[in-house]
Amino acid sequence: MTEYNFAYLDEQTKRMIRRAILKGLAIPGYQVPFASREMPMPYGWGTGGVQVSAAVLTPKDTFKVIDQGADDTTNAVSIRTFFQRTAGVATTTATSDATVIQTRHRIPEERLHEGQILVYQVPIPEPLRFLEPRESETRKMHSLEEYGLMHVKLYEDISRHGHIATSYAYPVKVEGRYVMDPSPIPKFDNPKLGDMAAIQLFGAGREQRIYALPPYTQVVSLDFEDHPFEASKADHPCGMCGATDSYLDELIIDDAGGRMFVCSDTDYCEARQSAGHKGKDAA
Amino acid sequence: MYVAVKGGERAIENAHAWLAEERRGNTDVAELSIAQIREQLSLAVNRVMAEGSLYDPDLAALAIKQAQGDLIEAIFLIRAYRTTLPRFGASEPVDTGMMACDRRISATFKDLPGGQVLGPTFDYTHRLLDFKLAADGEVPKAPSRDAGTATVPHVTEFLNREGLIEEAPHDDTPPPDLTREPLEMPADRALRLQALTRADEGFTLGLAYSTQRGYGRNHAFVGELRIGSVPVEMDIPELGFAVEIGEVILTECETVNQFTGSKTEPPQFTRGYGLVFGQTERKAISMALVDRALRWEELGEDNVGAPAQDTEFVLYHADNIQATGFLEHIKLPHYVDFQSELELVRKLRREAGAQQVQEAAE
């Protein structure tokens, strides 16, 4: 593809996005408005992440894309192919080999290292949106650090259900200042957000927002002293690799509703299997 | 036995090959040409240009062909293309007073300078299926006369002479650019109009209709509706003056709205404005009604809580490319989020069940 610039976007647009990224890194957790472009894939399908990836990719990078933890789901394949065609970068499925990882709804199980960039696709960047639909109001609430409404919501959950009824996109507080939406990752992944060696960038294309976590940022999941945050997962080992520490997908395997649980992170699961680990459902 | 699902790449390729075949349809039937679409489906082409924000009938026709007639998909193709185009500069503001009108009607005055010109309109056609078209689409030549050289003055100017309509003061502030800056609130009128002109026709129509039925009611008269071509001029720095670079067809609608006065404004008529690429009058009229409804604050009217008065609601939901993308993304896998919800619901049910057992025992 020669008719488009490296990584599709023109250099001026990339510069505008990089400025937003730098501002985001300077104010961790703050949502920076940016002039999101129409991309050749639909809004809501990762255009924010794609624009951020396009702005940070260099020809020497190795790129990995996961959707729901897997490298081979259709949208991950589509985004990976897009950058293969428009940027010609090397791609990989191995978490540790990648320099830029674009993700939807998961953080890889393997610890990321310095020099890596994790790019999140974000549908609704505003953690207060479902409490207050008005952007003009929520921006005011952030600037005044007025997060009482969020705590009331979590408290109401506890009084009604005995638990905080948020299982994904669980809100966090960054460096004691901004309440941030970690994108719809399961809350199992929340503890990985803080103190991470890699740079974390969040792109919301339709909502025109970018935010960021520099390496080793303090990120705390919101909770109460008597109801501490709990990272939960299905209470099973992986049926394929036997891992007990990974987030699991539940599969229905027969008409009788038989189920099995497997790692949602396909690279993690495959690496364990080739190292000889075996779950109870493995052949 | 579960085998990890591989082959997404091949599935996508095959799906797209199938799509291309479906788009072409039965090959015994002649293929549509771009020129046929441009000439014979021109109102669809106009809509794609208007909501795609790119005036190019051939590209719009190509997009319609590629999108198999799905106009929102075609608009999407145009938007994704236009965003990659370099910007050479901005044109001078077009002067719709200089418009060579194909159609020009006023619902407020029976006759007026420039006259009432019906033009090519569906109005007053009886909506009876014309079975002749199924066999033979050739039509006799329509009668014609010389266009005349007189410019056609705007109706609202006549009202303005008597001071009966609010002033529309001249303003040379460059408008913000929705396609180059993020949409931020509060949005001034220039930005609102910019968002509305590329807004989804159906959404804009629905909102406009809601104001007519009483949700933020403000009765609108179509002061004037005009469709025609206007010259586009661009200032060329090397020359030091503006030169005409082409023509575009526009639809302009100016509404005249009842207004009994407010705390800040005297009784007078007020304005709503719509301007859209191509012959797109349903959209232009809708736009003018929604524009007027959104002006409640600057006119000192009450906010009655109507959807069409709510700038954030209107502007953040009017773009069909944003809306359709987000709506359709729920087709994407959500295994992970759903799994975490499953765990939560199971846990809550377990606890609720245990509580019931305990209550029964007591």
Notes on the structure:
The complex is a heterodimer of chains A (283) and B (362). Chain A has 283 residues and is of the alpha/beta class. In chain A, 27% of the residues lie in helices and 18% in strands. In chain A, strands 1-9-8-5-4-2-3 form a 7-stranded mixed β-sheet. In chain A, strands 7-6-10 form a 3-stranded antiparallel β-sheet. In chain A, strands 11-12 form a two-stranded antiparallel sheet. In chain A, strand 2, helix 3 and strand 3 form a beta-alpha-beta unit. Chain A is globular and about 50 Å long. The model of chain A has no long low-confidence stretch (mean pLDDT 93). Helix content of chain B is 40%, strand content 13%. Chain B has a 4-stranded antiparallel β-sheet. In chain B, a hairpin with a 4-residue loop joins strand 2 and strand 3. The radius of gyration of chain B is 26 Å and the shape is globular. The chains are: A alpha/beta (283), B alpha+beta (362). At the A-B interface, helix 3, strand 11 and helix 7 of A face helix 1, helix 5, helix 12 and helix 13 of B.
Strand order of the biggest β-sheet of chain A: 1-9-8-5-4-2-3
| Element string of chain A (H = helix, E = strand) | HEHEHEEEHHEEHEEEEEH
Integer-rounded radius of gyration of chain B: 26 Å
Biggest sheet record of chain A: 7 strands, mixed
* Residue fraction in strands of chain A: 15-25%
Q: Compute the average pLDDT of chain A.
A: 93
Distance between the termini of chain B: 46 Å
Number of strands of chain A: 12
Helix content of chain A: 25-40%
Oligomer: heterodimer
Poorly predicted runs of 5 or more residues of chain B? 1-5
Helix count from the secondary structure assignment of chain A = 7
Topology, number of strands of chain B = 4
Order of helices and strands of chain B: HHHHHEHHHHEEEHHHH
What ranges of chain A have pLDDT less than 50 throughout 5 or more consecutive residues?
none
- Estimated structural class of chain B: alpha+beta
Q: Main interface pair?
A: A-B, 69 and 50 residues
Arithmetic mean pLDDT of chain B: 89
Q: Quick one: overall form of chain A? A: globular
Shape estimate of chain B: globular
The portion of residues forming beta strands of chain B comes to 5-15%
